[in-house]
Amino acid sequence: xxxxxxxxxYWPYRDRPKIVWPGEKKLAFWIAPNIEFYEFDPPKNPKRPxxxxxxxxxxxxxxxxxxxxxGHWRLMEVMDRHGLRGSVSLNVAMCDHCPEIxxxxxxxxxxxxxxxxxxxxxxxxxxEAQERAVLEDSIRTVEAATGQRIRGYLAPALTHTPRTLDxxxxxxxxxxCDLFQDDQPQPVKxxxxxxxxxxxSLEVNDVITYGALAMDPWRYADILxxxxxxxxxxxxxxxxxxxxxxxxxxxxxxxxLRAFEEALAYITGHTDDVWFTTAQEIAGFYREQCWDPTLAxxxxxxxxxxxxxxxxxxx
Length: 315
Description:
Layout: E1 27-35, H1 58-81, E2 87-90, H2 94-97, H3 99-107, E3 111-114, H4 128-146, E4 152-153, H5 164-170, E5 175-176, E6 186-187, E7 196-197, H6 206-212, H7 217-235, E8 240-247, H8 248-251, H9 254-268, E9 274-276, H10 279-289, H11 291-300
Parallel strand pairs: 1-2, 1-8, 1-9, 2-3, 4-5, 5-7
Antiparallel strand pairs: 6-7
Helix pairs in contact: 7-9
């Protein structure tokens, strides 16, 4: 294993070519509701258990089921009130398990991207044929359910193989949410295609703030506002991206929802400066308008390295 996976070139944040989002906006804002299915008794993976507690983990299963039964409906209503579309990080088996949710999101014009089939089926130990089957199933299932050709990917439970990014680029995915290296999009070094690293977030992801840090809802709302304020200020120099990744079994609990909606009201009050959009629209714009200037700037600054991903030698 090499010390650096070589998935993208080091490219200092300052003095990059200026990004100007559509409508002369400074910040591209998107929301990523994770619509997931956790199997009650998933197949065993040698590198990671399906549940942190021994089976049967009735508590863990039912907590996540709350999101699908109650939470997503609350979240959709909140986003409706603020005129926001979601980019759904989808375990595609939800198209079969809870088609009503998928239909409701599609009716609102939300985007869908793949988060694997189940969030309890990890990429660890998959061979190439298995990983290809997941991607092909994701494309086929979402297109049949919604008419959309998915263009984004977030690996199930953030698990990968050394070939994951090359494969999604080969299948003409436009962006990955699996890298957390920047507040602007950036080209990913793949063997084929034009794959964009899309700014997602672990810092303002409710799994971290509520799950890992047990944060107070009003504290979380304040963090969202401060994240937004800083990125908007920097967007004056060159366009930035803010994403809020959400899980309805967490953010949509009754005692948390009002604080989250207050943060959304604050953010959506900046219509003059913010492009309220989807991840696919950001990736499409970046590939068309920013990809070539970015690569030229990386090369001109001597930051480019040869080879791609985990294979080959770097210069």
